[in-house]
Amino acid sequence: MRMRPPRPSCCRQLSFAVWLTFGLLGAPASGQGLAATESIEIDPIRCWWRTSTGAVRSGETFLLVLTCAVVDIDDVQVIPDDTRLGVAVMQFAPFEVVGGTHPADLRAGQRRFVQYRYTLRAINPDLIGNDIPLPRTEVHYRINSRMPGNAALEGRDLTYLLPPHTVRVLSMVPEEAEDIRDSTGADFGRVEALTSRAGVLDVVALTLMALGVLAAGMAAVGVVRNMRPQASPGPRLASAFTIARLATRELSDVQQEVTADGWTDARVGRALAAGRIVAACALNRAVAQQPLSSPAGDNDGRLLLRRLNRRQRLTGVSSAVTPGDIGRAIDRLPDSATDRRGSLQALRSALVAFREVQYGRTTEMDRAALDAALAEAIDQARRAQHDRMWPRDAIRRWTAGTEVEAQA
User: Are residue 255 and residue 370 in the same domain, yes or no?
Assistant: First the structure.
């Protein structure tokens, strides 16, 4: 059996007839002639199209089936190139491939049948009312032969051209359709909800943008500040709020100790030192802050501020404000500042009570007077701490102008 590439159908019939006639009429009676009659030329592959319908509507899916019959015997095998016939690679423009399958091959006699199913549709309105031909399609295949000695011979790449086929495209919708409706379920409520959501996202985006600009500005300020030439770094001063909190804590500790054991000279000195710091905060005066290498004694007039800075663990805080300074500040107050006048007078009375015991000639302590002075000092210390809390302290400094205190 000899294989040849496919030719047009009329030529194939004529060739098949000529070979058959030559084999029957020109064959001698010998065995050699009989062998010649068995050499018949046949087509190695034959392919054809088939559609599930002869006419389709625009947008309607239909089935296009490609079937190929190839020779498959012991000595000769025809192998189609499956990689070029898959659903993912085949194109049938202007039709669109939406799916497909490849059933298992079937065998019948000397032939093996290969089939591919493609699901197509046409969505171009310009195709309506026309017979649309399928694009020119070629099937690539090889003829593999088995030689004597069980040696395999792989043939070259051959091409089979499929016959033309057309598909009629009818109207866009069925003739029996009474109305055309949108398939989507979107309504005005959905549109309004999406618009509201878009507005919320715009607000969030603007907020994040503003935060980003603020963070970038703060980073730029830090970079510029670090680029400035700085002098030798000195000790870092504590804030007014931290100083007021330290004085409040010291006065509260003194009150607890007095409640348990009574008044002593050391406790009076601690109360006086803390009261002077509270007075400095009330008069908007700076307090002295000095780094310490070790804790100082209880009677040196300084409070100990323990900080987290590795270079400066302890800081001695003190103030030189006297009751006379408070009295002069009271004299400069306007008549309308009754609340502040009362606070400063109460603080001045507390400092006078502590000073008379600390520096006076009498050795007796009036516990009731000292307790009252301590309670008033604690009240004023908490008030000063509250006024120095951020952002109240920043707002107070920005809006200052109606009342200016004298600076030491």
Answer: yes
